[in-house]
Amino acid sequence: GLGWEQLHARYPRLTQVAITGYPPPDENRAGHDLTYQAAAGLLTPPALPRTLLADMASGEQAVSAALALLLARERGQGSGYTQLAMTEATEMFAAPLHHGLTAPGGLLGGLLPGYGVYPTRQGWIAVAILEPHFREHLERELSVSSTDQEALGRAFLTRTAMEWEAWAEARDLPIAAVRDPTAD
After folding, report:
1. pTM, rounded to two decimals
2. Domain range 107-177, CATH class
């Protein structure tokens, strides 16, 4: 067979990373990226996720685990085997949500007016004015308090998203136009 025991017996220097959907004892449970994101609390029904986070996160974890096993082997610690679960890789990305940071009303979930998404004259912008120097610079440039969500919203309606992005780039402010990856 191709199990770790058989392969390791035949190839003693072999290292192996096994990727499962769920951790033991549920490693044979069926699942896909969508169900792993659902289990981690990352879905907002009825919308589907915009990216395959579980697939990419577990792929990155597998690379890191493989490199760690290879390094350990080269340092004389012998071959090794590790198993990682896609649900656990996904849950790592859900930690800010579970700790309330990005939950609705959390610091990065709508509580701070300087960290949000705003409509513009055409399109939307993402505003990430968290640090004091960014807040002070924005307030000076717009003559608006960065803690006044309504005033910020009114100000951002005066230009298009692309105009705001160019304006912010010229002033070294973290504001970006929200792009549609499916648009031409």
Report:
1. 0.80
2. alpha beta
